[in-house]
Amino acid sequence: MITPVFASTVFGLDWRDALVVGLYLVAMIAIGLWFKWRESRGGGTEEYLLGNRGMPWWLVGIAYVMTLLSTNSLVAVPGEAFNHGLALSLRYLLAPFVGIAIFYLFIRFFFRSRVFTPFTYLEERFDRRVRALGSIAYVVIRLFYLALVLYSSALVLQTVAGWAVPASILVIGIVGLVYVYFGGAKALVWADFVQFLLLIGGLALIAGVCISRVDGGVAGIVRYALDHGRGFEAMQQPSFYELTPYVRLNLWLMLFVTVSDRMFFASADQLAVQRLLSTSSYRAAERSYWFSQLITLPTMLVLWFLGLAVFAYYGQHPVAGTRLTGDAALFRFVTTELPPFAPGLFIAACLGLIMSTLDAGFHSLATVVVKDIYGVFVNPRASEEQQLKLSRVLIAAVAFVAMALAFFVAVTAGKLASSFLETTVFWISFQGLLAMIFLIGVTSCRVTGGDILRAFAGASIVTVITLWLYVEGRGTARPMSFLFVAIPGEVALLVLGYLPALWRKRLPPEKTAGLTLFTLGSSGKAKPPSPSSP
Distance between CA 351 and CA 30 in Å, rounded? Predict the structure, then answer.
């Protein structure tokens, strides 16, 4: 009998899967160290935060996709198809087309001058107070979001790989921190490229194995799913087309949320906008965005198909005594049906999606704090060297704060986890308010900074009341839809924001030149940020 060279398991994984995951983690760290080694001594914040605005458009397009995808997409989309069918896929199919239209609504304004964040636009269009409001609100919203991504991702890895939640948080957070801290924007974008290849390889492998195991192949999967209620049945219900906040899947709620999300990503979300700003020009950013949407659509179609494929497989090969749900079915298939090394590839793909979102978050929050808060309100005369040093410190600080918050949730999971995870409703609701501020900015020549501040205060009150009603309605006969919670506040901000324009004259031309859709051609070059106005 030959004694195996390797232990049968490493950290709860088969040694072959552990090898794949280990190689992936080493590669991520190596990317960061490589770009640190190549970094010139003269590089400043433009090099570190935006890759010297010279990243290839196709590479930025891939990084944009990976930044906005997450383990929620990898797990929740197949799980939705497995449990409920394809009705919700309408939102994902519409998203790229909505996103392209909204790209032309906002992005051009961020290329008027060499800005680092979209919040510079808020000062140019309104005043410094609105810039402060937008940047501070964004930092708070995204910081809590990163903590929740860390914790929820650790739960996914606990299910897939059997890792302890604290260990997962530590591994994900520290490895991601290392390659972003040392390598900056270039390391982040190239790491996203590697992670994209892993994702495509993992999805193709899982789908291929499913197809080979289901009678009839692709046609058999589709036929079985449709015959067993996993098609578009929800769209056949009258309630799907009613304007109501009390239906799980509703056409109007899906459309509103899709538009709102894409507005946020293309206006106030530094996490996404920073990718586009790392290209050389508006035209390059345009190509990057189109390319990202061309990639997104087939990727999402594969995820929806994967859910149907796993459903068909377990329909034809049921597990005795077990009633599988979507998430559990996918994990079970990965761990029991894939050939050697493949489960490790899937875990590496999960880690890639997690770290793409987290690291872009670390990077973007540091950028906003340095450029919109420290450089404007704390030390406007800070040198490039001072800002660069602070950027590195802040990336580490953001990472450790996010990990600390995630650890807090893990330790108190028995008492506070569910209520803490419900705070995802809060950041989704308030991120929409930021998007509406940008919408008013580019579509009105009459609204002032004071109008925006008052509108945001009123809309925040409406949002808090709606959130209270949402929580109170949970467990009742008519719970409020999760998709509805953000809508009242966003509508309130638009109404309160536009209302003064009914009686106010147009602002002086120099205050809106080149800053709205109606004044695009009225300024030949960028106007420097204006001082705070009354």
Answer: 16
